[in-house]
Amino acid sequence: MDIKQSEFIISAVKREQYPIDGRVEVAFVGRSNVGKSSIINALTNRRGLAKVSGTPGKTRLINFFLINKDFYLVDLPGYGYAKVSKKELASWGKTIETYLMHREPLKRVVLLVDCRHKPTKDDIDMFNWIKHFNYDYVIVATKSDKLSNNDLRKSEKVIRDTLDLGNTNKLFFFSSLNKKKREEVIDFIFKDVVEKEEVEEI
Ligand SMILES: Nc1nc2c(ncn2[C@@H]2O[C@H](COP(=O)(O)OP(=O)(O)OP(=O)(O)O)[C@@H](O)[C@H]2O)c(=O)[nH]1
Ligand SMILES: [Mg+2]
Known about the structure:
By secondary structure, the chain is an alpha/beta fold.
């Protein structure tokens, strides 16, 4: 599949603001600064669709993007940013929890981890949460341009071991900078959850 069309729909905090048209949703989660906004822009080929910033904690709301007029890509606020106040942290947790608690259209969660670091406790907590709520998931390791092939192999082992992934094919390395394997990562993330459309196209 390809992403031919994408548009920003709404920044939401409360449930009442979420789309109600029942279209399938794929949500992106990860630590602040992991490269969530960047990968959204890389996959949609839209430079400024999601705001990228060197300052962590930029995305505080739940952003809904409509893709190919068919399904939603949902950008959740990043976690693990040390400098937020307790009040902000509580409000972040509530925002994410409210969304993940019972979100019927949500068909898959994409957990992003930085390939240069061992997944943090926050990453592991988030991953356990996703599994607890029984969502289907895939993991994308970001910023792969920053490592040599040798270090990428080491990183893969660390990520697989830390998240206890075994040899499942649920892990993919990507760089939003060089966008290598863009088509493959799009298929990896979206294809089987939005497959209905593919079948109809044939
Ligand atoms: N080298 C490299 N840098 C990247 C890549 N992806 C993101 N970055 C950089 O990492 C920083 C954070 O990127 P964002 O996409 O804003 O990260 P985010 O996860 O959306 O951050 P928050 O919105 O704060 O949660 C920016 O300086 C990006 O330019 C990548 O694939 N390679
Ligand atoms: Mg962001």
